[in-house]
Amino acid sequence: MADKWYRLSVEVHKKYGGKIAVMPKVPIRSMDDFAIYYTPGIAEVSRRIHEEPDLSFELTSRWNVIGVITDGTRVLGLGNIGPEAAYPVMEGKALIFKYLGGVDAIPLPIRVKTPEEFLFVAQALEPALGGINLEDIESPKCFYLLEELRKRVKIPVWHDDQQGTATATLAALINALKIVGKKISDVTIALIGAGASNIYTANILIKYGAKPGNLIMVDSRGILHPEREDIDKMMIENPWKYKYAIETNAERRKGGIPEAMKGVDVVIAASRPGPGVIKKEWVASMNKDAIVFALANPVPEIWPWEAKEAGARIVATGRSDFPNQVNNSLIFPAVFRGALDVRATTITDEMLIAAAEEVAKFAEERGINEEYIIPKMTEWEVYVREAAAVAATASAQRVARIPKSYKEELEHAREIIGKNIRLVELLMKEGIIA
């Protein structure tokens, strides 16, 4: 099956020469119009921005432009394949940003050797961008880059492998817990994998109400705990993982995945493609009404039907051909829509929690069940509501240059997102997109 998609993808990319393009959004009736859009008229626009740099958000396209920046060190499941090979993935991200969020995203694979070089390039790009989406960067470097870049620039910075996955996971878990009748503060959660996704997921879960001691995190060497032989090395080389080795696992469990899963309520796996990474008997050892999120792609750590056969009540994966797809694409277009529309200076964890709660609420209103705990990407109204929740939270936290209420952003986001979806439909109808 995968071979079919691989072959078709290469053919389509070759036919279209990529997936995105730049289009004018102003009328061009004659060459005289360029006296307004370019010289001599443009000089006055530049003069005004020189006097007040923030006018660049009002008088140029900067307000709606983000850079999708990568060094190509951890691309999908392919690893360190370099910036050129990362380009089609960044371009795909840009396509989703535009279609589902109305955001103009520019693929920016960069050739850098050190984290400081990366930061220099990203920071230098700030005047051109309204936001930055970091993508496909190896761990633990990605943690440092996100933290440091957020300190250095005054535009939203986001790393989708961390924040996007964590937000989507929280949204799905909120509804899964409702179905099984358990509270986030009471459940024990095993996090299989201690990379970018699960480390930020742990952060968000704790901020949402999970008890740190109720989390049990497993990396490739086993369960994290303070007595591990590599704890001193971890403290120096990966302080982000070290933090959770110290603060989680109140029981001080030791061992590997089976020991981490025994008697827990929830498993969130974001490790390596399966099947067989998680075994049926390990699911069977979990508490009653177990929740299993097996999020590795292209093959989940355990097949959903195997987890169900072993007693799991709710199962989610990262795939669209199974129920309950926990997908970053439900999150990043809307988060940036809301952040850009209020000219946010950053993206806070509270904004992510607001997004997760809105996504969960959207699904709940439509009737959640064991095979529908999170909306599908086709339900585009969820992006509108999510953007509104993000914008309202940014405004309440005073990180918005132009504060907006939930209702104000709801109308604004609906107009922008709806317009872009209709635009693609129109271009296809007219044969401009073949």
UniProtKB/TrEMBL annotation:
Record bears the keyword Oxidoreductase: yes
EC number(s) on file: 1.1.1.38
GO molecular function, one term: NAD binding
Keyword check for Protein biosynthesis: no
InterPro entries per UniProt: Aminoacid_DH-like_N_sf (IPR046346), Malate_Decarboxylase (IPR051674), Malic_N_dom (IPR012301), Malic_N_dom_sf (IPR037062), Malic_NAD-bd (IPR012302), Malic_NAD-bd_bact_type (IPR045213), NAD(P)-bd_dom_sf (IPR036291)
UniProt keyword annotations, A-Z: Oxidoreductase
Limits of the Malic enzyme NAD-binding domain: 162-395
Name of protein: Malate dehydrogenase (Oxaloacetate-decarboxylating)
Organism, as annotated: Pyrobaculum calidifontis (strain DSM 21063 / JCM 11548 / VA1)
Lineage: Archaea, Thermoproteota, Thermoprotei, Thermoproteales, Thermoproteaceae
